[in-house]
Design goal:
It contains 6 helices and 8 strands. It is of the alpha+beta class and about 220 residues long. It folds into 2 domains: about 45 residues, LysM domain (Membrane-bound Lytic Murein Transglycosylase D, Chain A), CATH 3.10.350; about 130 residues, endopeptidase domain like (from Nostoc punctiforme) (endopeptidase fold (from Nostoc punctiforme), Alpha-Beta Complex). A hairpin with a 2-residue loop joins strand 5 and strand 6. The longest helix is centred in the middle third of the chain and has 11 residues.
């Protein structure tokens, strides 16, 4: 997905709708259809296609949440209350890798992931790499360990924030059954919080980049604002 501007575009993800994208990019359904002649039915767009965004001015505020609580998965595109989604937004970067196996991604040169990390525990490895690619952290702050990543970020001034005040790209930390996990907050879709991360969703227990991943009680931390 490119930065928003007069010639911006959006890579359609599963769950996207024209009406939601119109709100997100500060335009209208009619304008989107006029800029995309291939769309003949406003209710039918297809994941994987590229959508031209005419004269977008930014996203609209997302619905407010209620703070840490039960995790919600999701299939919608990145949203939220921070305006345009661009290459500096970790959640937008993470969205580009939806469906990719972490075991394959860590050996590519697309993200600065550490290749030695076992395929079933790449959550912090992925989040660290996305934050680095977005320019939010440097290599010295990154870690393939959830707990170490959390310590590094908090030591550098990241603070706990309520769900209603979270921004796309904030880091979501959780502990469940003695295991640590980390994903990224990706905004709201239909009033529900969305998350993206490297999650244990493959049949063999290995991880794949997917929506969801936050469950139980979670903590959202945000960089110094």
């Amino acid at each position: 997905m490119t930065a928003i501007g007069s010639t911006s575009s959006h890579h359609i993800a599963w769950g996207d709708t024209l009406s939601a994208l119109a709100v997100r990019y500060g335009t209208s359904v009619d304008a989107l259809m006029s800029a995309n002649s291939q769309i003949t039915d406003a209710n039918k767009i297809y994941a994987g296609d590229t959508l031209n965004i005419p004269g977008a001015t930014g996203g609209a505020p997302g619905p407010q949440g209620t703070g840490a609580g039960a995790g919600v998965g999701g299939t919608g595109a990145v949203g939220g209350d921070t305006g345009p989604i661009d290459a500096r937004n970790p959640a937008a970067i993470a969205e580009q890798f939806i469906g990719r196996n972490a075991g394959e991604l860590k050996h590519s040169d697309e993200l600065p992931m550490q290749s030695w990390v076992p395929n079933n525990v790449n959550c912090a490895n992925f989040v660290s790499a996305v934050l680095q690619k977005a320019g939010v952290i440097d290599a010295g702050q990154a870690s393939a360990s959830v707990d170490q990543l959390a310590n590094n970020l908090k030591g550098d001034g990241w603070q706990t924030v309520s769900l209603e005040n979270a921004r796309p790209g904030d880091v979501v930390l959780m502990q469940k059954n003695g295991q640590s996990h980390v994903v990224l907050f990706a905004g709201f879709e239909g009033g529900k919080p969305q998350f993206i991360g490297s999650n244990n969703v493959n049949a063999d227990g290995s991880q794949r980049i997917s929506w969801g991943g936050a469950s139980g009680n979670y903590e959202i931390i945000t960089p110094p604002r």
